Amino acid sequence: MPSIKNPIQSVANIAEQLHTCAQAAIHKAPHDGAIKATREQFGLETKYVDLFIQFIGATNIPKMDVLGTADPYFHARLDHKLLYVSSVQCNTLTPVWNETWQVKNVPTSAALSVVLRDKDEGALTDDFIGKFETTVYPGTKEVEIQGPVGLRHSKRGTFWLKIESSPSRGDPNLLPYLFDGPIHYSRHSSPTVGALTKLRDDRLYSTWKIYIKGIPQIFGEQVQPWNRKYAAAQTIFQGPTSLAVRSGIQAGHRMLYARTVKNGFGVIQSSKDVINLLHGGTHRSSADGTVSYAHRIKPAVYTYIISTDDESLRFSETGAAFFVDFASKHALHSNCAESVRYSGEFHPRPVGGWKDFSDNLQDDEVNWELVIDNNSGTYSPDPAILPKVKEIIELNFFGFQVVALPHDDPELKASVDACRAYALSKRGVTEHELQPHVTEGEETLSHRVLMGIPPGS
């Protein structure tokens, strides 16, 4: 939160970092590895459960700034294998989340670790509030939040959660710690939005992150490395200047995907939720005034990656302004990862295509599908894996049909052209909006990176 920083809290952050480093040195052997060795030594069988975790909320969180209260959020991990990131609760010392996390094939010996932080808009790092660790045994839990070791007033409030468990089915040794929903998403507004003088459509300045399930089961160990034959990728990943290039892209990524109080959060539970994600757009006409298409599916092309880091689907409109001056759109989304699960572009269309569509039809009167491809020079993903990408998207986007086409398929080009033609002729989209561009009065993301402006400023 934007406010005067508390010097005591800065000391707390430093103490927490030192404590974390010390603990990492002490516990250099992995927690689960030690348990496995002990079980093997005594001939004990590891039991696995499927977990339903409800993060209810917290009470008595301390004020984190001299002025104001706190904007808390948390990270939760199971044995450092799987990560859950909560929404940000604004201006409260008694946050209520009521967010759920389902994970299959978890050892009954697993530890659930939670770290709470205070979101500080415009700061390079967020203040550490406290942390706790608990077992995955079922029941409603009231856990004390512990602040930095060695400081007075180390108790930082109480966290409430509920855990339900049931015996795992099948052979959990093959695929342990499987994320099983719900499918949470966050929408992040680009920091360049605040510098715009005339904002036509804020979707052009947004990124989405969706935590999807099914990746280990469907992809296995398959990843797509960066394309060593692609000149733009070479500037990012090899050569004497690549470190500087990566640093700039990674700084841009942190800005685009920063967790802030302005983020939108939600859960995908039906095809209607997917349709709502694809809504947006306005058409300005001097004769008719402004016609809003905020509640219609926008004919647009999106750039996407499926991450190897956190198994998330990340995307934005291909014409997004923040891509200006960056060597690779896909590297900006992947945070310069040397490999991704997959990458390319996708666009929505009514079954039959945009060329036969009319705005006289309401969106709920037609069937919709996503056309997804492997159009990514940075990673040049294998087109033979497209059927798996189709399976992943259909698993997570309930009730949505998916058409997977390689980037050089003539059908793909015809579909993209029809999508963009409809946007130009029917929705008031201008030609330059179809590609990365800068609007008059806009401060580019690359300029903010160059100036070292923190995320959220």
Instruction: Count all strands and give the number.
Output: 21
What ranges have pLDDT less than 50 throughout 5 or more consecutive residues? Answer: 1-5, 21-32, 193-201
Shape: globular
Alpha carbon gyration radius: 23 Å
Largest sheet: 8 strands, mixed
Mean pLDDT: 82
Helix content: 10-25%
Number of helices: 10
Strand content: 25-35%
Side by side, the strands of the main sheet go: 13-10-11-17-16-19-20-21
The chain-level structural class is alpha+beta
Instruction: Provide the domain count.
Output: 2
Cα(first) to Cα(last) distance is 10 Å
Describe the structure.
Helix 4 (231-237) crosses helix 5 (242-256) and helix 5 crosses helix 10. The N and C termini lie close together (10 Å). A hairpin with a 5-residue loop joins strand 16 and strand 17 (312-317). By secondary structure, this protein is of the alpha+beta class. The chain is globular and about 65 Å long. It has 2 domains: 46-175, Immunoglobulin-like (Sandwich), CATH 2.60.40; 183-451, no CATH class. Helix content is 23%, strand content 29%. The protein has helices at 7-26, 31-42, 215-219, 231-237, 242-256, 271-277, 329-334, 386-396, 410-426, 445-451, and strands at 48-59, 72-78, 82-85, 96-107, 111-118, 127-135, 139-146, 155-167, 178-179, 183-189, 206-211, 224-225, 264-268, 282-285, 289-292, 302-306, 312-317, 339-340, 342-350, 368-372, 401-404. Residues 31-153 form the C2 domain.
